[in-house]
Each structure stands twice: as structure tokens, then as C-alpha cells.
């Protein structure tokens, strides 16, 4: 397996508000070329730290990409640091200096003296001309590894990497095909899922299996890497097939689509329409359903009945029922769904009532309590869950996910 | 200056689609405590690589924060790697195992056997209990430095770091006063804003000024670092005061509160109530308003009238009006707001109709067109905007932001 490390230089990426996004682009391109990124880091404009990181990286991976810190100012120490790490001299290239001067002249400006620093090249490096800016990049072979130095601005880096680095990398790495299978799962915890499927995927180094969980939604990523597409597909079928059997109907999607897209496609196929009646989630379920382009074909809309009075006025939930059972109850969820369905004529109505916190109000159910109602052509069902230790945004997100899961299962049975 | 390194563990953060966001939170908190982050990295679930990074970090910085990879599965090697780096044993703590078991029991589940791994503690570590999940954290003193091991899920990490690590860090670092001023701005573009205020803030190295824009919301962060609070406040007043004058009523918040909180506070003070009638945003505005704890006091709820028919049935927008002017029109926005206000008795009703794309349907307005209606005690106003080059999620987010901005200005005038 060919591997790479990405080292981004710049103190501004060590503040609370900035992230390094160049590495996402580089990772994508490297993966496609069959190179895995095994480590990435951000280092400030500090010669010793950068040199130390480059020295270590060049001993442990095949491709080291160092980006940023090639500007003309004294802050920009990347070239010096890499020269230090590799113990090589730097050489002044008059032709690079001339090209930078020419670039300034085209913009009717005179090149500041400090820009001459950008014409320094590490001994033995291949120069990578910069068609988008002043600082050229460098490609340096070192004991079977390669160190690439690239400019930090994204449009300069992308152009230089795609046009000049990738073709060289492809010549060094035998062609690899990468195929991915994404299974999405609802209605079980990450640890239950892992206990079920890890005995399967642990037996295989290829494909590589990763489990990702976010707000009640779990994704299982299988990534097979082979020399032919056929072999990669075979491996995915072999491992994915076993996981598929183990998880059964917990899997709601085998192509990466999220639950709102899966539910939308089923509604479309069944010519069904959907409305929502939301209390605790306050519009979050509707927002998710309507985030799908074209959802207006099956999603009519619905109600956000945050206040108790609107549950009565807009959905016809009787005041006695609210008084007797409370707004957070099985009975209220049921009445909300029935009311929303009746008043809109939709095929399906999903209701959510609960207490997302942070505090329990008087007569209400404990924080984290959620009831989901689902009214359809044949019946109305209600499910109940309690997420006691979760904060307000998570309870709301879990509740919307659970509502979509419940609807999805019902549509399968319809 | 005290320094820190952040090491995030997880192969999923080395893919093209994920970034490590925990480090942004940690950097912010560390900066406030007077600790600078000098390096950060992401490493896959690889024991040797993690151990090597921790071994080096603990020699070069005062605080090493290692997050993620504390789960119950065999992929999770962080504890083992840190133990290896520090050459210490791990000890099984039955009381931690018992607490995890109890947590599962409260959710009516049985603890899977593999979760017992989470009860392993590195010799000499202080245990950091996890109030949001199963994996406890650890605080390990090592030759004058500290290694903290924290869980990866953001809500678990944040809670543990703020409550248990920060107080310990503050005891080790002499007080540096950092004062921050956050101005939030709506209704202008990032480049217009920067052109207006950069001549002011560029003249100061302290405070450091950062401009952040996200979905139509702009934040100007001023961060002053001094040895006394008085001096820091003086600096903020000096620079912030000039920016304040330059931006005037474009500033809607001077304490970091988002627009939905600012609007909520004004509604509360004026004893006003609010409903929404959303088409293009499909519930996103309601979701934002109701994300504020306690919003049920002033936010009644409202309507998601995604289908044309619901605009008529639920809001009383006449079919003739829809036919004559189209669903995406000034007239429809006005009628939606008036209908929502009348049918709920709320003080204010905000409506949104538009075309968020990706395609324009037949007679509809061009992609990116949005009309916002605002009906109040005295009149109903409509505003129109076009964001032609934005994608669906951005148009929807811009629209919700603009609706809140419009309501906020109206509440100021009320």
C-alpha cells in the first residue's frame, strides 16, 4: 500500500476559526491514485517544528506533501525548514526571479526586493512552475520517498498538484482501482452494530471497513482496493453480503442515500403524500424532508405546533386529552398525527411530541422523552423513546431520524 | 507562552469528506486560558503512529490532548498507544465497568462484553468521568507535561474538557487575560464588510481581528490579550468602538448571540408572539427559532405549506391569487403572512416563499428567488432577494437569515 502524509504550514490554521481544507482536496486526489493518507498535521510558521515533522515523515511514508509558507515574508520558513530537514543547500535561480519580476510587471507593479526569496530552490529539487501565483513548488526525491512543497492558496495548490504532481505520482504507483460500498443503518446503537458486524469485517484487510455514527444515523463504509474493478467488486460483494445478512432490515440504504431520500423515493413510487406535525423538533423534520430536491412532489408540508394552543387550533387535539395525558404523551402524538392527516388529506402524517430540554417544565415528561406518531391509510401507531443524557440539539436530531426510520419501515410494509 | 498540541485519532478524519472540528473548540478554550496551540494532527487508528506522535509531543509541549479512539471496538487503540508511548501499564477498574453497565441498564440494555475495554486506565492517570457517554477520559502527568485523553464525540469531549480539564489547566497556567468582543452583522456581504472595517483593524496587532462569514451571517471577532482585564477592555473599546461606528445598525448583536436569540429576547420583552409560514425553507426557519431553549414562551409554531394546495387550505391564500401572481411572488408572501397571523392570533407572522432550486419548475421564478413577508399589528411588508449563484442549502439558509433580520429590524422599530 502506498501512503502519504500531508503537512500544512501556517499559524492562521491554528486559530479557533480556521481549518485546513487543502488536505481534503489532496486526500481525494491521492486516494484516487491509490495512495492512502495516513497522517496529516498543521504546524505554525516555526522552522524547527516543520523540519522535525518533515524529517520524521520522510522516514515513514512514501509521499510527503508540505503546503504553505512559501510567501516572500520572513514568516515564510517552509523552504528553509525542508532544506534543514533534508540537510541540503538552497540555490538562487535567476530565471525564477526574472519570471516573478515579469509577473509583477504585467500587473503594473515593481517586484519588492523580498520576493527574491521565492527564487531559492533546494539542491536537487525539480522546480514546479506556478501558473497562478509567484511561489514555485518543488519536488524532491529523498531515499525512495518524495517531498513535495506546494503553495498554500487553494487555487495555486490545486492547479500545481493536479497538473504537475499527480502525473508524476501516477508513474510511481501501479494502477489501482478503488470501489466503495456504503451501507446506512438506522434503529441500532453504534456498539450493537459493531458487535454484530466486526466479527465479519475484522477478517478482511481489504476491503477496509469504517463505521461512522452521527445523530442516530450509522454508516458502514467498505473500501476495496484492487488492480481490477472486477476483483474489487467481488471483494465488496463477499464482505458486504455477509454484513447485509447480519444487519437485515436495519440497513435502509445501500448506495449512500440518507433516510430522507430513501423515504422520498418510496413515497414517489407509491404515489403517497406526506405531512408532518412537529412539536419538540420545531420544524427540523420538515426541513430534512424538504431538503431533498423534488420533494414537493410528495411532501405537502405540515404544522409546527410548538404552543399547546396550536395543537388544538390547528390539529384538533382536544383540550381534555391534552389535560388528561399531557402534551408529551402517546395519546397526544396519536391525535396530532390523526389531525394532521385528516386536515390535509395526505396519505401519511408523522407527528413528534416530546421534551428536548434543557429543563422539564412542570407537568411535562422528563428531558429526552419523545413520542412519534404515524397515521396512515390503515392505522395509527405510536413509538416512544427516551434519550436521558443527550442535549437539546441531539434529542431533536435523534427524534427526526427515528421518525423517518419509522415511516420508512411502514412504507416497506405498505 | 504556554503551548499545546492536539492529536485527533480516527481514520475517518483522513478521508476526503471529514474534518476534525474538535480541535477548533479546544483551541478556543486553550487560547482563553492563555495556552497557544502550536501543532495539531490527525492520525488513523494505528497504535505505532499514535505512540510515536505522543512520545514526541510530550517532549516538546506542555499540554498534549489526544482525542478519539476510546470506543469499545478493536479499532480503538488510543489508550493502548498512549500507554505504549509513556511506557506504562493499564489497569482494569471494576467501578468504571460497573458505571458503564449501569448506563446501559438505564437504557434497558445489557452492556456488550467488549465495552469492558473502556474500563482500562493507564497507571498513574487521573480518571475523568464521562457524563455524556461510556468512555472515561484520562489526565496523565509526565515529566512536567500533561497528556489528556478525551473521547471523540464532540458533545462528550466538550463537556469533559470544560468541566474537568480546563479547571486543572487554569491552575497550572498563570493568568493571562483574554477578552473577546464578538459583533454579529446581517444584511451585507463579507467583502463589503471587510472593505469597510479593514482600514480600522489593520492598524492594530492587539486585539487580533478575524472576520467569519457563514450563510449570510457575519461575525467580527476581536480578541485582546493583556496582563490585566482593564487594559484588554480598553483595547477592545478603542478598536470595537470604531468598527461599531462604521457598521452602525448592520450590527445586530454585540455579545455573540445569534439572530434567533436576539429576536427571541425582543419578543419576550415586548410580550409578542410569533408564527411562521414556510414554503421554500420547508421548516428551517421554525427549526432555528425553536432551537433556542425557552422559545415556547413566544414561538407558537406555524405552517409548512410546501404544496400549493396547503397554502390555500391552511393559510387561506386564494387560488386566484396563486394563479395570477404565482406561488413565488410578493403577493403570495404577503397573503401567507396575513393568513398565518389571522389563523393563529400571533402578534407577528413571517412567511417565506421562493425557489431554492436546483431547477426552476415551469412558471416559477428563477432559482435563488426569495420573497419574505412580515405581518404585524400595524402593516404587512414584503422583501425580495435573488441569490442566483447559490445552491439549494445556501438559498434556504440565506432566506431564513434574511427573515430573522427583517423581523429583528421591525421589532426595533415597534
Number of helices of chain A: 13
Contiguous low-pLDDT stretches of chain A (5 residues minimum) are: none
C-alpha Rg of chain A (nearest Å): 29 Å
CATH architecture of the largest domain in chain A: 3-Layer(aba) Sandwich
Fraction of residues in β-strands of chain A: 25-35%
Helix content of chain A: 40-55%
Class by alpha and beta content of chain A: alpha/beta
Summed over residues and divided by their number, the pLDDT of chain A gives a mean of 93
How does the overall form of chain A come out from the CA principal axes? elongated
Q: Say what oligomer this is.
A: homodimer
Tally of structural domains of chain A: 3
| Cα separation of the termini of chain A | 47 Å
Biggest sheet architecture of chain A: 6 strands, mixed
Sequence of strands across the biggest β-sheet of chain A: 2-1-3-8-7-6
Kindly report the CATH topology of the largest domain in chain A.
Molybdenum Cofactor Biosythetic Enzyme, Chain A
Order of helices and strands of chain A: EHEHEHEHEEEEHEHEEHEHEHEHHHEEEH
Number of strands of chain A: 17
Q: What is the CATH first-level class name of the largest domain in chain A?
A: Alpha Beta
Tell me what the structure shows.
Two copies of one chain form a homodimer. Chain A has helices at 22-32, 47-60, 78-86, 94-106, 154-172, 190-201, 229-247, 259-269, 284-289, 308-315, 319-325, 330-344, 392-413, and strands spanning 2-9, 35-43, 63-67, 90-92, 120-122, 126-128, 137-142, 145-150, 177-186, 208-214, 217-226, 251-253, 274-278, 299-305, 348-354, 369-375, 380-386. Chain A is of the alpha/beta class and 414 residues long. Chain A folds into three domains: 2-172, 3-Layer(aba) Sandwich (Molybdenum Cofactor Biosythetic Enzyme, Chain A); 177-253, Alpha-Beta Plaits (2-Layer Sandwich); 259-413, CinA-like (Maf protein). Chain A has a six-stranded mixed sheet with strand order 2-1-3-8-7-6, with helices on both faces. A five-stranded mixed sheet of chain A has the order 14-13-15-16-17, sandwiched between helices. In chain A, helix 9 (284-289) links the parallel strand 13 and strand 14 (299-305). Chain A is elongated, with a radius of gyration of 29 Å.
Amino acid at each position: 500500500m502506498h501512503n502519504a502524509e500531508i503537512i500544512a504550514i501556517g499559524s492562521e490554521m491554528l486559530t479557533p476559526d480556521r481549518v485546513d481544507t487543502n488536505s481534503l482536496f489532496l486526500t481525494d486526489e491521492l486516494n484516487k491514485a491509490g495512495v492512502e493518507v495516513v497522517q496529516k498535521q498543521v504546524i505554525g510558521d516555526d522552522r524547527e517544528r516543520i523540519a522535525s515533522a518533515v524529517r520524521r515523515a520522510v522516514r515513514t511514508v512514501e509521499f510527503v506533501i508540505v503546503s504553505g509558507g512559501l510567501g516572500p515574508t520572513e514568516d515564510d520558513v517552509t523552504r528553509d525548514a525542508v532544506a534543514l530537514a533534508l540537510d541540503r543547500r538552497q540555490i538562487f535561480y535567476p530565471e525564477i526571479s526574472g519570471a516573478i519580476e515579469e509577473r509583477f510587471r504585467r500587473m503594473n507593479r515593481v517586484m519588492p526586493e523580498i520576493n527574491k526569496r521565492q527564487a531559492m530552490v533546494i539542491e536537487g529539487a525539480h522546480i514546479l512552475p506556478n501558473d497562478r501565483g509567484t511561489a514555485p513548488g518543488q519536488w524532491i526525491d529523498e531515499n525512495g520517498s518524495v517531498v513535495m512543497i506546494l503553495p498554500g492558496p487553494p487555487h495555486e495548490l490545486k492547479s500545481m498538484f493536479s497538473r504537475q504532481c499527480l502525473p508524476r505520482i501516477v508513474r510511481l504507483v501501479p494502477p489501482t482501482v478503488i470501489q466503495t460500498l456504503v451501507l446506512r443503518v438506522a434503529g441500532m446503537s453504534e456498539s450493537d452494530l459493531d458487535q454484530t458486524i466486526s466479527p465479519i469485517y475484522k477478517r478482511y484487510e481489504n476491503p477496509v471497513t469504517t463505521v461512522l455514527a452521527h445523530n442516530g444515523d450509522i454508516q458502514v463504509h467498505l473500501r476495496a482496493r484492487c488492480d481490477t474493478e472486477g476483483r474489487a467488486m467481488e471483494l465488496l460483494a463477499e464482505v458486504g453480503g455477509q454484513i447485509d445478512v447480519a444487519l437485515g432490515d436495519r440497513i435502509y440504504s445501500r448506495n449512500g442515500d440518507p433516510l430522507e431520500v430513501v423515504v422520498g423515493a418510496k413515497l414517489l413510487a407509491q404515489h403517497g403524500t406526506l405531512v408532518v406535525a412537529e412539536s419538540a423538533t420545531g420544524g427540523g423534520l420538515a426541513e430534512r424532508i424538504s431538503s431533498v430536491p423534488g420533494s414537493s412532489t410528495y411532501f405537502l408540508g405540515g404544522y409546527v405546533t410548538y404552543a399547546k394552543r396550536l395543537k388544538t387550533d390547528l390539529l384538533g387535539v382536544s383540550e381534555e386529552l391534552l389535560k388528561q395525558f399531557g402534551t408529551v404523551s402517546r395519546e397526544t402524538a396519536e391525535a396530532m398525527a390523526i389531525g394532521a392527516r385528516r386536515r390535509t388529506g395526505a396519505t401519511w402524517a408523522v407527528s413528534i411530541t416530546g421534551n428536548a430540554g434543557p429543563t422539564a417544565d412542570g407537568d411535562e415528561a422528563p428531558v429526552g422523552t419523545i413520542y412519534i406518531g404515524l397515521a396512515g391509510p390503515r392505522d395509527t401507531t405510536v413509538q416512544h423513546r427516551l434519550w436521558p443524557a443527550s442535549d437539546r440539539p441531539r434529542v431533536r436530531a435523534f427524534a427526526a431520524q427515528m421518525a423517518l426510520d419509522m415511516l420508512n419501515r411502514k412504507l416497506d410494509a405498505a
